[in-house]
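Sat 14:20. Reprocessing the chain from the morning session after the first attempt stalled halfway. Input below, unchanged.
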Amino acid sequence: MKKLLNTIYITSPDVFVSLEGETIVLKKEEQTATKIPLHNIENIVCFNYLGVSPALMRACIDKNIGLCFLTPHGKFQARIIGPVHGNVVLRKKQYFISEDTKTSIMYSKSFLLGKIGNARKVLERALRDHDMVINSKKIEEASAFLKEVLKMIPDCNDPGELFAFEGSAAKVYFGVFNELILQQKNDFYFTERSRRPPLDNMNALLSFLYTLLTHEVASALETVGLDPYVGFLHQDRPGRVSLALDMMEELRPVLADRVALSLVNRKQISGNGFVKKESGGVIMDDETRKIVIQSWQEKKQETLTHPYLKESVQYGLLPYVQAMLLARSIRGDIDGYPPFFWT
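Finished this time. Tokens:
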């Protein structure tokens, strides 16, 4: 099993990142702030404007270290990718599947079964843990609806109908998401999902976590030799990591949504850490972003028993495990792709 290495998040916009020997050097206003050994780093995510040195980029390419650039507010800008070392036969099969509707829809159904099943589990966990303080009837009705959608997906062979099922399930799930927010309701109310830009604090928090998750899934897919830009559920679009978006669907209720709810309900962050721009979009300030990233890192260190492998794995390795299973399925080593179901 792959070892979970460290991810560095550069959150200060005025930090420049360079390389000295085998050491990453963070400099702020020409002063060295931090030095980090390169050998145990798996990913570097930069929210800074100053960027990184060409030498560090080269080292990341040579050592297969993921390097991703986001704006200080979390909007994706670019990923540095070196020569493709993935198995060419595996990628050719991936491309063939993406063009074959009958086969690609089988993978699409697996991704959606995982997504909707895990969304329903989030609701069921809320009923179990907070039955006395939430609108149980409303949550139960939403859970029952998701259960019915799960029954219909396996027999669906039309991409349009599949997207309709996905849209209906998402609308119902996010329709009761506000019930899961138990604290700071005035600052973290939720009415509907809004993106590009997020229009309230909770949507800003979710979008930021989804961006982190997407980056990690894309890196995992590249690690096992798959092309993160060629998906089965999400259509190809220049610059969009469609396969990463496919796979992150099943992981985001457990990883991103649960982390967001925990941060708010435990009052680890507050409404004061969010700013509404003139355009109407909402962004996080630097301090809040650091708290969110710290919580994200801690979640990745927690362990669970993987339902398919029956092995103990860290949450942070779930993207890699699922990418590995997807590659095995595409190669024909296992029958079908087993989505991750949270238990």
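The domain at 6-80 is CATH 3.100.10.20 (Ribosomal Protein L15; Chain: K; domain 2).
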